[in-house]
Amino acid sequence: MLKPRMAVIAVMIFVAAASRLMPHPPDFTAVTAMALFGGAYLSDWRIAFAVPLSALFLSDALIGFYSHMEIVYGSFAIVVAIGLLLRTRRTVPMICAVVFASSVLFFVLTNLGVWATSGLYPRTMIGLVTCYTAALPFFRNMLAGDAFYVLALFGGFAGLQQLIPRIRQSQAVPSPA
């Protein structure tokens, strides 16, 4: 049987993934936030990867699959791993630092993948700079979306824990190993 705490966290992640189905500015999504949230709050590291990746996959199945998904999913998995670092240090400054670092990492890796595999840009330093430059307007939206959804997920769960004592963590956080 699913524990109430884990069920609430999983539902929040799937609702965040479902928000991708609603109209939104380009790249203003919950993707990074749900990866960090899953890593930070799901107690078993395997589930911490499985739930956000499954939610992303289901939303992609509804939106439509795209080329170079392996790069997006690999970047997403690294962001889940970064979320594991928040398990014992969920402070506002740490969450802010981690969401910014995760946003930058996702931007760098996915656009490097576009440059290296799409054929849209020459495989030169100028082509790489052009690729990153063209993606900057999307990064602004991504960073804003990441901040918004991190606040919604982490803040929302903190509020729910105050309202519903049954979902509060009652024991030490297990190590990610």
Q: Which band does the percent of strand residues land in? A: under 5%
Low-confidence stretches: none
Overall mean confidence score, pLDDT? 93
Q: List the domain count as a whole number.
A: 1
DSSP helical segment count: 6
Look at the helices and sheets and give the structural class.
mainly alpha
What is this structure, in a nutshell?
The protein has helices spanning 4-18, 31-41, 45-63, 69-84, 92-117, 125-163. With 177 residues, it is mainly alpha-helical.
Written overview of the protein:
The chain is mostly helical and 177 residues long. It has one domain (4-166). 71% of the residues lie in helices and 0% in strands. The chain is built from 6 helices and no strands. The chain has helices at 4-18, 31-41, 45-63, 69-84, 92-117, 125-163. The longest helix is centred in the C-terminal third of the chain and has 39 residues, at 125-163.
Which keywords apply here?
single chain; mainly alpha; 6 helices; 177 residues
Layout of secondary structure:
Blueprint (H helix, E strand, L loop, with lengths): L3 H15 L12 H11 L3 H19 L5 H16 L7 H26 L7 H39 L14
